Amino acid sequence: MPSIKVAILGFGTVGEGVYRILQEKREEIKKSTGFTVDVVSILVKDKAKERMPIKGAQITDNIQEILNNPEIDVVFEAIVGEEPAYTYLSDAIEKGCHIITANKTMFAKHGPALLKHAEFRDVQVGFEATTAGGVPIIRTVTNLLAGDRVKRIQGILNGTSNFILTKMRDEGSSFKQALSAAQQNGYAEADPTDDVSGTDAFRKLMILSSLAFGRQPDWEDVPVLGIDHLEPDEILDASKGDLRYRHVADIWKDEKGKLQAAVGPVLIGADHPLFGIDGVDNAVIVNTEYLGQLTLVGPGAGMYPTGSAMVADLLHVIRQHEAILVPN
Ligand SMILES: NC(=O)C1=CN([C@@H]2O[C@H](COP(=O)(O)OP(=O)(O)OC[C@H]3O[C@@H](n4cnc5c(N)ncnc54)[C@H](OP(=O)(O)O)[C@@H]3O)[C@@H](O)[C@H]2O)C=CC1
Ligand SMILES: N[C@@H](CC=O)C(=O)O
């Protein structure tokens, strides 16, 4: 049976999710693709940290051990921040590896360059997990673009913010209690400021903008607000009036073809498609010229939803590049 050798950069919530799914679904993947998938290396920052038992893979804190291993076909990346992630993935592409990332901080800024580089080296880039966790919005928009044109994308793109707003409204939790629960569930970023300030949703919106419109607006022109300035009473009072605060990221083309975008809390009524989206769920509404309106809903964060989006990217890579992967 031919084997695909993979490395995982980062073994926190997301990296561990990828590893677990690849182990749990090993036989199914083998059956559906004809390949076994072997995790051969895992990159971490702190090798001394206690972790789940790992079979067959080497744990390293030295990226060169991965980049210099000619057997590795695919590099999953689930570390934190712009660097060293961008450099590691550029180097992996240069070595001829396919890459799959969940790192939106890095991809919002460097995604276009990585995609160009990958095209030149004839390798694939999977980035489904960068935006809306387990919701397959990247694949959906990519498919739509084959015969349609996106006019507007609007959505709840941060699971932590939606989880906090829901807990404050339904359970009367304080902001601090709700954020702490989001952290315990593995939803929040290492620095949750990005979640609650709107920055994380903004970055995801910029990734969608590149994909759907082929460009991003000037970042400085986009107003970005988080949920961190909302008072608990505002949330409860709204709900008494049958209204709900949702943290919404929105991008559209105006009449002159200029991209307009905004990110922030919006008060909506029961007739809005985002009204019923609770907890860690994300929802993305896509308006197109021919299809009209489509809404995708699902978990926007967490170990298994995010890990499964990355494994789905791997299956796509395998199907696209079978011929290249066989020689190992
Ligand atoms: N949590 C979620 O639901 C989602 C997260 N993401 C994104 O996925 C990425 C990972 O998130 P998450 O798993 O939650 O983060 P964690 O903080 O749980 O894990 C991060 C992992 O990366 C490792 N790491 C960090 N910096 C370096 C470095 N410089 N070199 C080597 N290893 C490093 C850490 O090593 P060590 O274990 O030794 O500390 C750790 O294993 C982030 O970019 C995040 O934005 C995307 C979608 C959803
Ligand atoms: N912290 C993020 C994780 C997924 O991207 C979120 O809460 O949405």
Automatic annotation (TrEMBL):
<comment type="similarity">
    <text>Belongs to the homoserine dehydrogenase family.</text>
</comment>
<dbReference type="InterPro" id="IPR019811">
    <property type="entry name" value="HDH_CS"/>
</dbReference>
<dbReference type="Pfam" id="PF03447">
    <property type="entry name" value="NAD_binding_3"/>
</dbReference>
<dbReference type="InterPro" id="IPR005106">
    <property type="entry name" value="Asp/hSer_DH_NAD-bd"/>
</dbReference>
<keyword id="KW-0521">NADP</keyword>
<comment type="pathway">
    <text>Amino-acid biosynthesis; L-methionine biosynthesis via de novo pathway; L-homoserine from L-aspartate: step 3/3.</text>
</comment>
<feature type="domain" description="Aspartate/homoserine dehydrogenase NAD-binding">
    <location>
        <begin position="10"/>
        <end position="126"/>
    </location>
</feature>
<keyword id="KW-0028">Amino-acid biosynthesis</keyword>
<dbReference type="InterPro" id="IPR001342">
    <property type="entry name" value="HDH_cat"/>
</dbReference>
<dbReference type="InterPro" id="IPR022697">
    <property type="entry name" value="HDH_short"/>
</dbReference>
<protein>
    <recommendedName>
        <fullName>Homoserine dehydrogenase</fullName>
        <ecNumber>1.1.1.3</ecNumber>
    </recommendedName>
</protein>
<keyword id="KW-0791">Threonine biosynthesis</keyword>
<keyword id="KW-0560">Oxidoreductase</keyword>
<feature type="domain" description="Homoserine dehydrogenase catalytic">
    <location>
        <begin position="136"/>
        <end position="315"/>
    </location>
</feature>
<comment type="pathway">
    <text>Amino-acid biosynthesis; L-threonine biosynthesis; L-threonine from L-aspartate: step 3/5.</text>
</comment>
<dbReference type="Pfam" id="PF00742">
    <property type="entry name" value="Homoserine_dh"/>
</dbReference>
<dbReference type="InterPro" id="IPR036291">
    <property type="entry name" value="NAD(P)-bd_dom_sf"/>
</dbReference>
<keyword id="KW-0486">Methionine biosynthesis</keyword>
